[in-house]
């Protein structure tokens, strides 16, 4: 049928009918909030490039966790800023590491909050790269050991899920094996499977104090020009035991999210990263956009593309509208 028999505006002429036929609905169940934990007590250090976000000491993180949980946030992704760093990221594997401390405190004080730990070495190494450096580059296989031990240490602390973000080949298998050997069969892995060497991570470098001290990360993170390669990365992670796969960043890679979801029919996470967040905040501060409407549209678009989980710094602001 064509016009005038078919008039698609009939299904748009009231809010009720628009709600009835809406294809994609964003809910609080879709969202995860990233948080940054640092040493000290009473520390709430605002991140200048990410308004509304701070580096928080464990006590302040617990306060934030309670606030978020009361608002309806069900899950948070934890990043750590350690008191000291080393060459290999060994500090991230310690029983009393900064994220391990945070996990124990949150589990005690906010037991209903689902805790996910980012697994990587960039915040913990003196050079800011994601693994052990040999001859000026990250040594893939040496790094796997640190990542696996970090994952086990965090599982022992009580984390609900681990999320390796390093992009080393074989790290999902190494982590799955280590978790299973230590009895953590039910700890899921959310793998940063298609993580691009993106310019959108800029503000995160300030937040996590993880800027590389030399070179870049192009030898292990993906070329933004590539799409087919992302499917190969995702497939390998699934074969190695990933329970959830992730695409990062999100907005410039909605085609990748769509392809991953349709190819593998796996739970897919999308990370709405710091640079994407900062651009919205900057435009809103100038009065150029309606921030709330923009955020709803962006996050709904990610879900429409196929994201089951959306990791976003907007979560704490948008959650009560859902």
TrEMBL record:
Positions of 5-aminolevulinate 2 binding: 274, 313
Taxonomy of origin reads: Bacteria, Pseudomonadati, Bacteroidota, Bacteroidia, Marinilabiliales
Protein name per the record: Delta-aminolevulinic acid dehydratase
MF (Gene Ontology): porphobilinogen synthase activity; zinc ion binding
E.C. no? 4.2.1.24
- What UniProt keywords apply to this chain's record, in alphabetical order? Heme biosynthesis, Lyase, Magnesium, Metal-binding, Porphyrin biosynthesis, Zinc
GO BP terms in the entry: protoporphyrinogen IX biosynthetic process
| The reaction(s) this protein catalyses | 2 5-aminolevulinate = porphobilinogen + 2 H2O + H(+)
Protein's organism: Mariniphaga anaerophila
């Amino acid at each position: 049928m064509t016009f005038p028999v078919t008039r698609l505006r009939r299904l748009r002429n009231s809010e009720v009918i628009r709600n009835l036929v809406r294809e994609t609905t964003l809910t609080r169940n879709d969202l995860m909030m990233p948080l940054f934990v640092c040493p000290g007590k009473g520390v709430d250090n605002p991140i200048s490039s990410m308004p509304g976000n701070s580096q928080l000491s464990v006590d302040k993180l617990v306060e934030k966790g309670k606030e978020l949980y009361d608002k309806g946030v069900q899950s948070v992704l934890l990043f750590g800023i350690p008191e000291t760093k080393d060459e290999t990221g060994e500090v991230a594997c310690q029983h009393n590491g900064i994220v391990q401390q945070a996990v124990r405190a949150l589990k005690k004080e906010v037991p209903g909050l689902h805790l996910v730990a980012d697994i990587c070495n960039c915040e913990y190494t003196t050079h800011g790269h994601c693994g052990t450096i040999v001859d000026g580059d990250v040594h893939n296989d040496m790094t796997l050991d640190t990542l696996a031990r970090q994952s086990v240490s965090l599982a022992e602390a009580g984390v609900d899920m681990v999320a390796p973000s390093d992009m080393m080949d074989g790290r999902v298998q190494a982590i799955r094996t280590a978790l299973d050997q230590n009895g953590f069969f039910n700890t899921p892995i959310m793998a940063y499977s298609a993580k691009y060497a993106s310019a959108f991570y800029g503000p995160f470098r300030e937040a996590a104090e993880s800027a590389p001290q030399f070179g870049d990360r192009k030898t292990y993170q993906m070329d933004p020009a590539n799409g087919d390669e992302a499917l190969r990365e995702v497939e390998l992670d699934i074969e190695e035991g990933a329970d959830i796969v992730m695409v990062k960043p999100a907005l410039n890679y909605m085609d990748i999210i769509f392809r991953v979801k349709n190819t593998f029919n796996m739970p897919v996470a999308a990370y709405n990263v710091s640079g994407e967040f900062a651009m919205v905040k900057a435009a809103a501060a100038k009065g150029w956009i309606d921030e709330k409407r923009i955020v709803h549209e962006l996050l709904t678009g990610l879900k429409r593309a196929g994201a089951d989980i959306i990791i976003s710094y907007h979560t704490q602001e948008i959650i009560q509208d859902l």
